[in-house]
Specification:
By secondary structure, this protein is α/β, with parallel strands linked by helices. It is built from 3 helices and 5 strands. The strands form 2 sheets. Strands 1-2-3 form a 3-stranded parallel sheet, covered by helices on one side. A two-stranded antiparallel sheet has the order 4-5.
Length: 134
């Protein structure tokens, strides 16, 4: 039997940020990302060996991340909305894991020669982390 099926999910970053594009990105968690995951779950359920498989969301985020120049508030808004959706839908999706793509220098944590810090996305992840296991 297949234990888990790897899946990657990226929401395309808008070319320019304005209030409408930021709102659209935050809403994409529920309107685009979750329907894509549920569709993938339904496809797995129709395949004999994969029916019992869990989904391993190996990479997710806005991007693709290697094309994003900087990570700011819109990325934090999407990550927060998406993580809350994942928590709500984890059981019906049979989600084994959900890994944010490369948090160091590509999203959540910036590094310099002598220091490091959290981006707005990192701050959002830190705020959500206190609720793990609840």
């Amino acid at each position: 039997a297949l234990f888990a099926h790897s899946y990657h999910l990226y929401i395309r970053q808008p070319d320019a940020w304005d209030p409408a594009s930021m709102t659209s990105l935050a809403k994409a968690a529920a309107r685009v990302a979750m329907p894509a995951l549920h569709y993938h779950r339904r496809r797995l359920d129709t395949v004999g060996r994969a029916k019992s498989a869990k989904i391993s969301l190996d990479e997710w985020g806005v991007g693709p991340p290697w094309r994003v120049r900087s990570f700011g508030a819109p990325h934090a808004m999407f990550a927060t909305a998406f993580l809350l959706q994942l928590l709500r839908h984890a059981k019906p999706l049979r989600l084994a894991s959900a890994n944010f793509f490369e948090p160091v220098n590509e999203g959540a944590i910036w590094t310099g020669p002598w220091d490091a810090g959290l981006t707005p996305l990192g701050e959002a992840l830190a705020l959500l982390s206190v609720h793990q296991g609840q």
